[in-house]
Amino acid sequence: MNNTPTPHNGAKLGDIAKTVLMPGDPLRAKFLADTYLEDVVQYNSVRGMYGYTGTYKGKRVSVQGHGMGIPSIGIYTYELFNFYGVENIIRIGSAGAIDESLHIGDIVIGMGACTNSNYEDQYKLPGRFSAIASFDLVKKAADEAERLGYTYKVGNLLSSDTFYDDGQTLKDWQKMGVLAVEMEATALYMNAARAGKKALTICTISDCPFTGEATTAEERQTKFTQMMDVALSLIEE
Where does phosphate bind (predicted)? Predict the structure, then answer.
């Protein structure tokens, strides 16, 4: 049975490449497609969540917005892995610094993702699941960031279900060595594990809660190009 198009994605089977780069912001997806890709075709605009396929240095790649939060990325990545034959998903997103040595524009490569979400409950596991990235993608991303001279760290992310949090909890995660907080990596890593596919999250620090540093929406949309450079280096044939 062909499950495409879906209620959330207007693409047909074959429209989407084996490797997909996924920002939360659909306008960042458009920016990446317009700036980096050749022979671009837009395959999705359902719910304003733009998706494009093109080529980068001769390699076919897609870029697809995924929205905010674990439920949203959970839907889009499940469909990409299980209905569209996607093999690799690289999330390129923004994150808030938990490690106080991180600053605006620094890159965090998410080797693992802690969470306060109950997303894993669906799997009925007899314990807790450690949501981790695919090692080969982590290694390649770190090697490329090193080669390009970008400031980066590799380590744990926190995928939070809350953006506005009544509790002051980030210091607790800081004590455990967590580098940054975002809202999606856990679901991406769990969906990839369940489907037997590969995934990675690369984030750019957009704000520092402990120092008050912050960026604008426009800067987050168009200025975070270093993580795009790294992600584009991971495209497989």
Answer: 24, 28, 47, 91-94
